[in-house]
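Open question from group meeting: does this chain pack into something compact, or does most of it stay loose? Before anyone orders reagents, we agreed to write out a predicted structure and look at it together. Recording both the input and the output here so the notebook holds the full record.
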Amino acid sequence: MLFLIVERTFADNLWSLRIVIMEERHTGVSTVEQPYYIAITGTQHYYGAAFLKPGQIVHLIKDPDNPHDHEAIKVDLIPLGKIGYVANSANTVPKGCRSAGRIYDTFEHHICGIVRFIVKDTAIVELAPGIEEVYFIKSTEDVSFSPCLGRKY
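Structure tokens returned:
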């Protein structure tokens, strides 16, 4: 079964439509899967954590070219970009959360998560493999944007 969540906002003469598609998966077995949580760390190096709110969707993306950690998973928030990394050391992984190394092989390249709690400068995120996020923006003007740079021609 698919669930569709739609948020519509209007600002600066533009309608912005956020669509979240969530798929409920049944395996035929009546076991309750325990949710997995991760912690976002390093937010102070990007935008901080003050803007994060419970319910926001974040994107966890493998970062295999990271020179400091071969199991690094960066955390992106659309439209900002990178906001931190999944905690991956004994000093940064809170009790009850999984490290980047523990979840690294559980998904191909990308998985979504939902912010559940914010404690000081750390966000606790529940992994949500059945959620994908899609954005559509309709402009009131006829403008072109470079697909690579996102700049107006």
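Observations to bring back to the group:
Confidence is low (pLDDT under 50) at residues 26-32, 149-153.
The CA atoms of residues 115 and 125 lie 4 Å apart.
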